[in-house]
Amino acid sequence: MSPAPGRGEDLLRQFLLRYDRETTQTTYRSALTRFFGTDLVTLDTARRVTSVDVNRYIEALEEHGLALSSIRGTLSVLRSFYGWLAAQGLVQRNPADRMLVRRIPRTDWRERPIHVLTLAEARALIDCTDAESRTGIRDRALLRVLIKGCLRRGEAVALDFEHVRRVGGYWTLTIPRAKGGADQHIKATDDVVASVAAVAELYGEETGPVFRTLLTGRPPGARLGGQAVYKIVMQAAERAGLPPITPHVLRHTGCTLALEAGATLQQVQAHARHKNIGTTMLYLHQRDRLANCAADFISVQYPLGHDDS
After folding, report:
1. What mean pLDDT is predicted for residues 131-154?
2. Separation between Cα atoms, residue 89 and residue 194, nearest integer Å
């Protein structure tokens, strides 16, 4: 068991050891660094913070126009950090306790629009990649994995060739260090497997990262980062004549297309690895809300040439 941190030690480093995922560590470190104004947070620094300081910080974030969801996320990180200190008896009270800080308005999660592509748009996105170029072969595989595997950006970049395996008569993808913590497994369709195999042939090897940096005249480089995936998706959307999208839109698209093609909620939940089926139902809720809308029953028509101004 690790000893409690001393007064001059870096608390952030020890606090972040609780989390396995690199993206979580990065997000939490960024939030805490912005709050404290330094990346070296000692016990003395942490103990000086009061609930008044937290409330003033929240007020400043609101005045700067930060999204309410981002403010709630920041507050959650602060609450976790001080909860960790309190559990070790290092602080007497949590200055971010719900009873001490101002309430952040919460929007109804069921009403938030989910941006998805249609089937035709998803096909156009994949088809816009150059099937003959090195980057095109890699990018086509990446887009297929994101859409048909419903993978998160971090899960896609962590994919190795060794994670594509045959189980019985089916191909599967092992998703290492997924959001739930442990490795998870999903079915890989034939076109996804073929695209990954094309990348392996391009690299001339069948081990290591599937998605790597590719520079002209040079061998495949290091594993792609999350920001590179974001850029690839944005550029593909531009080539396909689509509005700007993020990698997570492709995950939403895969879930929605599966439901529209007849998959059950439980099948989509398992494939997308949603812990709560309520998350999966968001896609169904949005589709039904837009497909069967009261606006479609409102008929106000004017004769041709009528000026309704």
Report:
1. 95
2. 55
